[in-house]
Amino acid sequence: MPTFLELSHVHVARGENVVLHDINLSVNTGEHIAILGPNGCGKSTLIKTITCECYPLVSEEGEPQTKVSIFGRERWDLTELKKRLGVVSAELPGRHTLTTTGRDAVLTGFFSSSTLWPNLTVTDEMRARAEEVLQQIDAVPLADKVVGEMSAGQQRRIMIGRALVASSQMLLLDEPSNALDLAAQADLRGLLRKLAQQGTGILLITHHIADIPPEIDRILMMKDGRIIADGPKSELLTAARLSELFKTEVEITQRSGFYHAW
């Protein structure tokens, strides 16, 4: 598969603090990866670096050269890049999206907008693609429902559709099960399994082990702004490794291909 992401010697600062240190990472298009780590370890900043919301520090003379390459390119128009990257954040939809129907919310993914503003032109091809995505994510019954009247789980499903509509190559999810009840979490995990099986690449950031579907086998572990482990699930999702990562005693069990920790 072609390379989706190449990060070499990336350091990122937020304000006065360097929060990512010497990140080296290669991800292929269509690959399924989960990134684990405690709160504050730099997971969300890593996503923002991938989406060009945060920029790496310039390499000093004599230091290894910093590189950020996305889909084989080091420079992007951000509007164009957003159409190639499906990003689903932990936050629920904003106020403009809340007054939009599910169908129109999915269509906003073509424009990276919060609603369908009057100056935006929606083509017949876009509408046809939106209907395909609504079917793909099992959200046809939500097409004419106002987003603000949906449950948190339904809203998250529509936001995944919005992320997929312009391009289904890679889906980036930042703590997607936040604010979801147990039933909605189960629905989300089922949807992620379906998308992975259909070939959509998934980069999942979470600290909930149960969020990781069986289709994800590669695990990255982050701590203090560094990637401290990168390998197969069978080697890294162990009680010993997770206890060390989260600095607390962890026990692990498996059921139907999912790992559970407590």
Automatic annotation (TrEMBL):
Location of the ABC transporter domain: 5-249
Sorted UniProt keywords: ATP-binding, Nucleotide-binding, Transport
Top-level division of the source organism's lineage: Bacteria
Gene3D superfamilies: P-loop containing nucleotide triphosphate hydrolases (3.40.50.300)
SMART domains with a match to the protein in the record: AAA
PROSITE patterns listed in its UniProt record: ABC_TRANSPORTER_1, ABC_TRANSPORTER_2
One function term, GO molecular function aspect: ATP hydrolysis activity
Pfam families, alphabetized: ABC_tran
SUPFAM superfamilies membership: P-loop containing nucleoside triphosphate hydrolases
Family annotation (InterPro entries): AAA+_ATPase, ABC_transporter-like_ATP-bd, ABC_transporter-like_CS, Metal_Ion_Import_ABC, P-loop_NTPase
Name this polypeptide is given: Molybdenum ABC transporter ATP-binding protein
Organism name: Edaphobacter acidisoli
Species lineage: Bacteria, Pseudomonadati, Acidobacteriota, Terriglobia, Terriglobales
